[in-house]
Design brief:
122 residues; mainly alpha; Arc Repressor Mutant, subunit A; 3-stranded antiparallel sheet; 50% helix; 11% strand; elongated; ArsR-like_HTH; DNA binding; HTH arsR-type domain-containing protein; transcription regulation
Length: 122
């Protein structure tokens, strides 16, 4: 995996500022549970095959067997991945007879996926 951190030689030395020059900023009004939930979402999005699955579902609902055929993967692998994505609220499922269909949970997920991919292309 590519190391994206700047190397010390690439970053100009910043002049030290005196801690007394600044006051503390107010704490965020965002609840702690929002941060822990967002971390779970980003962890789930941090796997290429899970992100590929979400991108596929961005284009519409799909059955587990259809997803498995698209990625040439075993049903058990795809089912496990989808359960994980459902567990963090990124996908929703519905059953129709023997088939289980998955779709993105909502437009927030669609935006997360699209924005991440668009940003990576910049």
């Amino acid at each position: 995996m590519e190391d994206l951190r700047p190397h010390a030689r690439d970053v100009p030395a910043a002049p030290e500022c005196d801690p007394h020059d600044h006051s503390a900023r107010p704490r965020t009004p965002v609840p702690e549970r929002a941060f822990s939930g967002a971390v779970r979402l980003f962890r789930a999005l941090g796997d290429e095959q899970r992100l590929r699955t979400l991108e596929l579902l961005e284009r519409g609902e799909a059955c587990v067997s259809e997803i498995a055929a698209t990625f040439d993967e075993p049903l058990s692998t795809v089912s496990h991945r989808l359960r994980l994505l459902e567990g963090v609220g990124l996908v929703a499922r519905r059953r129709d007879g023997r088939h289980v269909y998955y779709a993105l949970a909502d437009d927030h997920v669609r935006h997360l996926v699209r924005d991440a991919l668009d940003h990576a292309l910049e």
